[in-house]
Design a protein that fits this description.
The protein is α+β, with helices and mostly antiparallel strands. It is built from 2 helices and 5 strands; from the N terminus they run ββαββαβ.
Amino acid sequence: DHEHSKMEVSLKVQVIRNGEVVQNRRIRLCNPTFAVVSRVVSAWVPGETVLKYIDDEDDEVTMDTEGEWIECLKVCGALPAIKIRVHKSSSKCRPDPLPAV
């Protein structure tokens, strides 16, 4: 897939904490990779998060790889905006790393 066409993707990002939406954001990106989406989200929501998208059957699908992001684009690309939910990890096996100062 060596297309050089620009694909604008509109994202509606919901930050979920303890099962409740605590933040809604919209952003439009050009040809975003999963790494770019992850960086944008981590700037908004520091710490451990889980990214999920709402598919065409209204299911929440977890994604953490480029392949899963590509599938998300295939499934949701025709929608006006791809809905991504960012779940703040509450139960962790290890503590958050200290931020670099």
